[in-house]
Amino acid sequence: MRMKMSRLLYLVCMIILVLTGCVYTEEEQDYSIENGTKSTEENHSGDTREESSKEDDNSGDGTSQLTETEAIEIEEAFFDILFSQETKEGSNEIIHYESKESLINVASEVVKRELASYYVDQYYREEEGKLYIIPMDGVTQLQLDSQYDFIHKEDNVYALIQDEENLMIGDYELVITFEKIDGQWKMSDREMKVE
């Protein structure tokens, strides 16, 4: 019974977040990542963690390193684009997009296209030229106020890894992988392993 109440509370919170969450318009924010930086007017200050000392490095081979800050900006852009869409009052109809393809195109600026397609197909439905969000449990997000690791896995591949606990699912490990794709850093995979 307690588990059902927790899930219900979580679902209600997610619906409220979707209905009253961040307003996103394409005119206000540009989520293209060029040379590893996010082009928005947002300032992501207030982070009390130690920042990674890794900076962009053009080390003769033409590759640059992804910084922890850039990885977090990509994670935030992923949620802003896919899970903070403004809806019409009293419905789940998305205001700024009329098709899955248009949302995938914008999300693909920060997320590998196949990953963007997967999430759009899971959380949205297209009907009669309109796009609707499907109310359901959301994607697990990196908890910035909890400990996590930022690691360099291999050439042009980095990951944010967090071991965390959630009332609904218990202990889990979140692994968010980033790769340089067509000269830009993008999220290439998200995996949550329930322990």
Describe the structure.
The protein has helices at 2-20, 68-83, 100-107, 113-123, and strands spanning 33-34, 37-38, 124-127, 130-133, 149-154, 157-166, 170-181, 184-194. Strand 7 (170-181) and strand 8 form a beta hairpin. Helix content is 28%, strand content 26%. The chain is built from four helices and eight strands; from the N terminus they run αββαααββββββ. The relative contact order is 0.16. The strands form three sheets. It has a four-stranded antiparallel beta sheet. The protein starts with a helix and ends with a strand. The protein has a single domain, classed as Nuclear Transport Factor 2, Chain: A, CATH 3.10.450. With 195 residues, it is of the alpha+beta class. Residues 39-57 have a biased composition (Basic and acidic residues). Residues 34-65 are annotated as: Disordered.
Question: Could you give a quick summary of the protein structure above?
Answer:
This protein is an alpha+beta fold and 195 residues long. The chain contains four helices and eight strands; from the N terminus they run αββαααββββββ.
Q: What is the level-2 CATH architecture name?
A: Roll
Task: Please give the number of β-strands.
Answer: 8
Low-confidence stretches: 1-6, 8-62
Strand order within the widest beta sheet: 5-6-7-8
Helix/strand order? HEEHHHEEEEEE
Question: In total, how many domains does the architecture comprise?
Answer: 1
**Alpha carbon gap, first and last residue:** 22 Å
**CATH class (first level) name:** Alpha Beta
Alpha-beta classification? alpha+beta
Provide mean pLDDT, rounded.
Answer: 77
Strand content is 25-35%
Number of helices: 4
Bin the helical content. 25-40%
Give Rg in angstroms.
17 Å
The CATH topology name reads Nuclear Transport Factor 2, Chain: A
Biggest sheet, in brief? 4 strands, antiparallel
**Based on CA inertia axes, which overall geometry fits?**
globular
